[in-house]
Automatic annotation (TrEMBL):
This is ATP-sensitive inward rectifier potassium channel 10. It is a multi-pass membrane protein. It comes from Crocosphaera watsonii WH 0005. GO terms for cellular component: monoatomic ion channel complex; plasma membrane. Keywords: Ion channel, Ion transport, Membrane, Potassium, Potassium transport, Transmembrane, Transmembrane helix, Transport, Voltage-gated channel.
Length: 291
């Protein structure tokens, strides 16, 4: 039995959709960039921004001399915590503005705090409400006989305790080609599947492409595909039963992730009540095909 670690190049084929790498500054689409940012980086960025704003206003309050009542003159600590109270609009305790200059700064910071709170609330809601797919793809694709025909197989599973309705899956091979005129192209060829859609996807799905005379992979070898820098792309879409919104998931297999003459280990079992379930412990495992 062979086990494989998950490839770190899962989305490499998506980056190859553009023949030229383009640089997009963050300001080009800041909203989309903040939504697509990973949670830990998003929280770190918001924390840095929050403390930076308070530090900036703390320095401004320090220039007011006696503008903040009961604050030690020249104390950055008192000015910083006064800024936090002002930005969060929680109200003042022993420290409060007592000069016109300080009150102008307080007015600006309160207005800025309300604006930032509105923006942050919208971002948090958009990130939480965005439906995401928890679809698991096998670490490798296998090639083994099925009904006497060599068949490329990929295994997927729904990791959530719900259903994906009207699920559709596509398999394609992406490879380099040179036209008769000498143009270098990155081409996509759809691979015909034995079953490309299912009304309900809640457990596992074995995606199968027969390599027959109509297959773009017919007559190809690992060596010939390597010369064309070939990859196998998988794209799944469906309707999330919980959110009633369309979700999608994608994965890619490079040639090092394609294992010929192997099949997937069976992961279906039945409990004492006769219910079918899957054991994801062996989800990525493959075994050699017996001759």
């Amino acid at each position: 039995m062979r086990r494989y670690k998950k490839s770190i190049k899962s989305f490499r084929f998506l980056k190859k959709l553009n023949p030229v790498t383009l640089f997009h500054p963050v300001t080009h689409d800041l909203y989309h960039w903040l939504l697509a940012l990973r949670w830990r980086y998003f929280l770190i960025l918001m924390s840095i921004f929050y403390f930076s704003i308070n530090c900036l206003f703390a320095l401004a309050y320090m220039t007011t001399e006696n503008g903040i009542a009961n604050a030690e003159q020249g104390s950055f600590k008192d000015a910083f915590f006064f800024s936090i109270q002002t930005l969060s609009t929680v109200g003042y305790g022993s420290m409060y503005p007592q000069t016109l200059y300080a009150q102008i700064l307080v007015t600006i910071e309160i207005w800025l705090g309300l604006l930032l709170l509105t923006i942050l609330t919208g971002l948090m809601f958009a990130r939480f409400s965005r439906p995401t797919a928890k679809v698991l793809f096998s670490n490798v694709a296998v090639i083994c006989p099925y009904n006497g025909i060599p068949t490329l197989m990929v295994r997927t599973a729904n990791r959530r305790d719900n259903r994906i309705l009207e699920a559709q899956i596509r398999l394609c091979v992406i490879l380099n080609e040179v036209s008769q005129e000498g143009y270098k192209l990155r081409r996509f060829y759809d691979l015909e599947l034995l079953r490309s859609q299912t009304p309900v996807f809640n457990l596992s799905w074995l995606v199968m492409h027969p390599i027959d005379e109509n297959s773009p992979l017919n007559g190809e070898t690992i060596e010939s595909l390597a010369e064309k820098n070939a990859e196998i792309g998988v794209m799944l879409t469906g309707l999330d039963e919980t959110f009633s919104q369309t979700i999608h998931a994608r994965h890619v297999y490079t040639l090092v992730n394609i294992v010929p003459n192997h099949r997937f280990v069976d992961i279906f079992s039945h409990n004492y009540q006769g219910e079918t379930y899957i054991d994801l412990t062996y989800f990525h495992d493959v075994v050699p095909v017996k001759n």
